[in-house]
Design brief:
Length: about 450
């Protein structure tokens, strides 16, 4: 009788537990279903960009660890490499032992987060920036570094790592850019940096300004090549060497992409972007000249952002907005979100996000269907900006005399206007309520180039 009772208890317990097991098995699939909860737009409207560090000079490159939202690496123009393991709250210098401090590109191996590559030499050029000393590699997440070759490249603009093989790496070398040299173009290693092969070389005056890899097929590569020469008295950007190249066999052979919707006249710097959501869609941010004749009288093409929806075979102009590129030798860099091929972020004097229309536009029509400007980041502010909820706009980088302005001295605010655009003028306005007086100073120039507002509150 006792055994019968025990068997019945086991059966009853099994019946009670079975629904819980089945529910647990179903739960992961249910969590992946799209949420039906309506989105409250007011919540997102409270998000503001804030400075999270590291303090120092310009941050030229940032990379993270896939699957870990707390780990990031940041490379400075002449300040080495920093790492955070708590989402940007604290930063630690991890490359002070290196004999070079100018960082051009950083990359973490997707298949092994302990493997970190650093390319030295700032590629965002002017006449007085620091040169690099090749590539360096860490196999313990930045604790120790070892030399990995390409010492004479000068400036490395991008590093791309095979998603399945951390020893297969591609490096885009811009070169020193002060004159002709052979160490320019795209280099490839298959043994973790012990040996390198120069797989794409256009000429000794042309370097690589950008490099991207198809997220779904690492054998497909696109390279942006830039003919550039810098002197203390100026720079010569553009030439026959500038253009877009592609490889379909892992970099062994390359073909130049011409015509089919791309500018036909001489171009300069090229930036490239691609999304895992749609690898057939490639973006190219191209320095064209905007139709303005060169100093020697040569004509230039118009347009800035071009797009291909068939893997680079055909292209169409989608925007002529000059703000997306800014001063091209400084900027002309952007990224496409991995889960939305229509959304891209452009790094310029003021960071911008753009939702790109699915229909290409002609050169004389309006640009994107939807466009929103994010808080401009003061140029005096070094480091990285992120978004965080319920945090007011940061005052760091605003002029110190702004807070001391008074109702009788709006000119103090005018002196605080800071803008690097030529032909600037500062407009001040005043509004008074029962509790306070507020002056607003706005820098006005060509609206396509710059507009920044600085506010001060006076009791």
């Amino acid at each position: 009788m006792f055994r019968a009772f025990r068997r019945q208890s086991v059966v009853i317990a099994s019946l009670l537990v079975a629904p819980l097991i089945l529910a647990a098995q179903r739960r992961p699939n249910e969590e992946m279903r799209p949420s039906t909860i309506p989105t409250d737009s007011t919540v997102y409207s409270r998000l503001r960009w804030r400075h999270v560090g590291p303090e120092g000079n310009r941050v030229t490159s940032v990379t993270g660890v896939s699957g870990d939202p707390n780990v990031y690496y940041a490379g400075a123009a002449s300040g080495g490499i920093f790492k955070t393991t708590d989402g940007g709250i604290h930063w630690k210098a991890i490359a002070d032992s290196l004999p070079v401090s100018s960082i051009g590109s950083l990359a973490v191996a997707p298949s092994d987060p302990n493997v970190v590559w650093a390319g030295t030499g700032e590629p965002f050029i002017r006449s007085n920036i620091s040169l690099g000393w090749g590539t360096w590699k860490s196999t313990d997440a930045g604790k120790h570094w070892e030399r990995a070759g390409l010492e004479n490249t000068g400036r490395i603009s991008r590093i791309v790592i095979d998603p399945k093989d951390p020893d297969r790496v591609y490096v885009a070398s811009l070169g020193r850019a002060y004159g002709p040299q052979p160490e320019r173009g795209i280099f490839r290693t298959t043994d973790g940096g012990k040996t390198w092969t120069k797989v794409l070389f256009v000429n000794d005056s042309t370097g690589a300004s950008d490099l991207i890899m198809d997220p779904s097929n690492p054998r497909v590569l696109f390279a942006g090549m830039w003919q550039i020469e810098v002197h203390t008295w100026g720079r010569t950007s553009g030439g026959k060497g500038s253009g877009i190249w592609t490889s379909r066999d892992g970099g062994t052979t390359w073909a130049r992409i011409t015509d089919h919707g791309l500018p036909k006249l001489t171009i300069g710097k090229v930036g490239l972007g691609m999304s895992a959501a749609n690898p057939n869609r490639i973006y190219a941010l191209i320095e064209t000249g905007d139709g303005v004749p060169r100093a020697n009288g040569d004509s230039t093409s118009a347009g800035r952002l071009f797009r291909s929806d068939d893997g680079g075979m055909n292209w169409a102009l989608v925007s002529s907005d000059r703000q997306m590129a800014g001063r091209t030798h400084y900027y002309n860099r952007f990224g496409v979100t991995p889960d939305n091929a229509n959304e891209a972020y452009f790094l310029s004097a003021a960071m911008r996000t753009r939702r790109i229309s699915s229909r290409p536009r002609g050169p004389r029509r309006s640009t994107a269907a939807r466009r929103s400007s994010i808080h401009p980041t003061p140029r005096s502010l070094a480091g990285i900006t992120t978004t965080s909820g319920s945090i007011p706009p940061m005052a760091t980088g605003w002029p110190s005399d702004t807070t001391a302005a008074s109702p009788s001295r709006p000119t103090a605010l005018a002196r605080g206007c800071r803008c690097n655009c030529p032909s600037r003028r500062c407009i001040t306005s005043r509004s008074t309520t029962a509790s306070r007086t507020t002056f607003t100073a706005t820098v006005r120039t060509d609206p396509r180039r710059c507009a920044r507002a600085i506010r001060a509150r006076v009791s």
